[in-house]
Input
Amino acid sequence: MGRDAILGNVLNGLVTKGTLTTTQVDAIQQALKDSMSSMKSEAKAMKDAYLKVVTDTLGISEADLLSRIKAGESLAAIAGAKKDALVSAIVTFHSKNVDSALAAGRITAEQATKLKANLEERITVEVNRAKGLGKIKGLDFMGGRGHGKGPRP
Output
């Protein structure tokens, strides 16, 4: 049974008990649907921005980048002599995103500090890894196994 079905059953149970009305349940389900849609849009925009940073830094097309990654090349191998510039660009990208989240009140200063701790080292490891475009604190771009799917090879 999927997450939506479970939530639907819980909400319908609350209607049966008289805790919620059908109108309230419909509003809750619509708000959740809208929120998921917004989160998906934000994630796609973040992925697109990340791809742009990588492709602009390396001077290659997105199609070429994705093709080479799917063929098993690491970002480091694709970057060649531009590896240090790539690491720096990705660190800047993630740092700006953390700063934006902090300024918007989505994270605390303590969380921002933790997210930025050892960022260059973590980015360097991901750039050297020959699997996808990296996963930095929950942002998995292209090729990760995803949450709950076991360890990465």
